[in-house]
Amino acid sequence: MPYDVNPASTDIGPVALHPLLWVAMAGVFGVILLQSIIYYRAIRRAGPAVDLTPDQVSASVRSGAVAAIGPSLAVALVAISLLPLFGTPAVLTRIGLVGSAAFDVAAAGMAAGTQNAELGGPTYTQKVFAIGFSAMTLGGLAWMLSALILTPILAKGDKSLRKVDPTIMLIVPGAAMLGAFFTLTLAEGLKSRVHLTLLFVSAATMGLCLLGATHLNKPFLREWGLGIAIVVALTVAHFMTSA
User: Measured between alpha carbons, how far is 109 from 129 in angstroms, rounded to an integer?
Assistant: First the structure.
């Protein structure tokens, strides 16, 4: 594929699949692999201090790996649905490893909106992709910097607020997230009857998954909830648009 960049082109392949993005993705994978090796070696060294034998440490790691299969498949399902929007390198780097599908789509959507464009629509050009991808990346960078720098500071404030009222730190973050995603959801739902129907269908599906996870003691439904909601919504959208 030629990698001629044309900011006005709606073919995002030349930028979404650019070799530099593949190199960057390989670098991220390399860092994560190195971190995993460092953590594993640290666990093995710390094991004797808590009366864990090397066999027990290995068994714990295997159990964790098996337990991660379910959530990983759910993330993979979400990632596959986003490949047409962002391309393989971006999806693997952001959603597959260090990102959040809900945040990344919301960030890219808001960034596209500043250009009067829509993700995946006829106005989704190479320029809009670059802006959306930059928003996703900067958002992820802010998360990592927050974890590195602000977490110790916020922990002190959290302790102080909990002394005043323990429920404050439950309400404030939840209210902020609800407000942000409600705004994005409402904007999508008002576009057409199909959009509104899919909004209710996906919300109901997610709600049923959460209820099933809680009342039926099926934790995998919580982990797979987002992926299941996406598949159900896509199926309903197919039948509604082809009818």
Answer: 10
pLDDT higher for 18 or 98?
Answer: 18
Q: Using only C-alpha atoms, what is the Rg of the chain?
A: 21
CA distances from 135 to 70, 80, 139, 205 (A): 29, 20, 6, 29
79 near 96, Cβ under 8 Å? yes
100: which residues sit within 8 A by CB, 6+ positions away? none
Q: Domain residue spans in the chain? A: 13-160
Cβ-based neighbours of 82, under 8 Å, separated by 6 or more: 91, 95, 101, 104, 105
Confirm if 134 and 111 have CB atoms less than 8 A apart: yes
Q: What is the pTM of this model?
A: 0.57
Q: What is the pLDDT of residues 107-121, one digit of tens each?
A: 888 888 888 888 888
